[in-house]
Amino acid sequence: MTLSGYEALFFWIFGLSAIFAGLLTVMARNAVHSALFLISSLVSVAALFILARAEFIAGVQILVYVGGVMVLFLFVIMLVNVGAEERGSEEIFNNQRQVTASLIFCLLLVAGMLYSINTGYRGMQSRNTTTPDVVAAQESMRDQAHPASATGSSRITKDAENVGGSLYRYASLPFEIASVLLLVAIIGSVMLARTLKQEASADDADPGIAD
Amino acid sequence: MKQAAANPDLSKFLVIGALLFIIGVAGVLTRRNIIVIFMSIELILNAANLNFIAFSRYLSGMGNSNALAGQIFTVFVIVVAAAEAAIGLGIVIALYRNKETIWVDEIDLLKW
């Protein structure tokens, strides 16, 4: 799985950009700035997905997550957050106990992560029998076997085909359940966002119906 | 050390995922704005997605036939995240209509 060459360079660029943008999401004063930093973090993670050869998931992430969910966030910020800018600089962090609790929790997570990475890395290194350049050569050979795109400048990978095949063959029941979940979410969000006047007018039946 | 940095392995992906998770948890616990709390939750879900994809790539490199399960699960995580964001923001809008505030420490009607 080792990346090498340009892939390693882009991995570090997009990885550090994702972490930096995530950090700024949490620390920005303005909610719109937080949303824009989260968008850049999500796009960086989509680039990491492409480096991990999950091109379909990267496309889904950019279309659905960035193009749908984050745009929804921006709309809601537009609707509810207008008073914040007028008030000037307001304090954004909660009281001292919350900050301390989160810092302790994050330190515990960092310690656990360092311990598990160090222990697991030694186990994985003992299992790695091939060197990175051999793996890179194998993978570039496999890349050349893919069909070329219409313009001839890149190759079309089989990731979307494989994910679609597995999804519809082995995971079709969770797929249908996910569709029902989305339907329920649509109905629920329409119902939650109605104003009192809209709810009251729904009770006015058609004058022709006698009830 | 230089070779470990020049050839990032599975563990580097996991480290980035874990760091994003930690940043998201810190955001959920410390911010006052409820919309920024929601965005931190999206960061947490994204970190979990990155873990899934990293392991799927590692297993497909190992030759495991079940390696695509990581990518399929990622699709479902994105679906659930989108549904949860829609409902959560609907709740935020309804809350704002009733209480005219977005600061979580002012939403304390059920507090004893």
Give a verbal description of the structure.
The complex is a heterodimer of chains A (211) and B (112). Chain A has nine helices and no strands. Chain A is mostly helical and 211 residues long. Among the domains of chain A are: 86 residues, Up-down Bundle (Four Helix Bundle (Hemerythrin (Met), subunit A)), CATH 1.20.120.1200; 31 residues. The model of chain A has no long low-confidence stretch (mean pLDDT 82). By secondary structure, chain B is mainly alpha-helical. Helices cover 77% and strands 0% of the residues of chain B. Chain B has four helices and no strands.
Would you spell out the secondary-structure blueprint of this structure?
The complex is a heterodimer of chains A (211) and B (112).
Chain A: H1 6-27, H2 31-51, H3 55-80, H4 82-86, H5 96-127, H6 132-144, H7 159-170, H8 172-192, H9 196-202
Chain B: H1 2-6, H2 10-30, H3 34-62, H4 69-99
Count of folded domains of chain B = 1
| Strand-pairing-aware structural class of chain A | mainly alpha
Cα-atom Rg of chain A, whole angstroms? 24 Å
Oligomeric organization of the protein chains: heterodimer
- Give the structural class of chain B: mainly alpha
The CATH class name of chain B reads Mainly Alpha
- Poorly predicted ranges of chain B: none
The whole-number mean of residue pLDDT values of chain A reads: 82
- Following the backbone from N to C, one meets helices and strands of chain B in this order, namely HHHH
Give the tally of β-strands of chain A.
0
Distance between the termini of chain A: 68 Å
Q: Percent of residues of chain A in helical segments?
A: over 70%
Report the order of strands and helices of chain A.
Answer: HHHHHHHHH
The portion of residues forming beta strands of chain A comes to under 5%
The CATH topology of chain B corresponds to Helix Hairpins
Question: Outline of chain A, from the CA principal axes?
Answer: extended
Strand content of chain B: under 5%
**Total helix count of chain A?**
9
CATH-defined topology of the domain at 1-86 in chain A = Four Helix Bundle (Hemerythrin (Met), subunit A)
What is the level-2 CATH architecture name of the domain at 1-86 in chain A? Up-down Bundle
Low-pLDDT segments of chain A: none
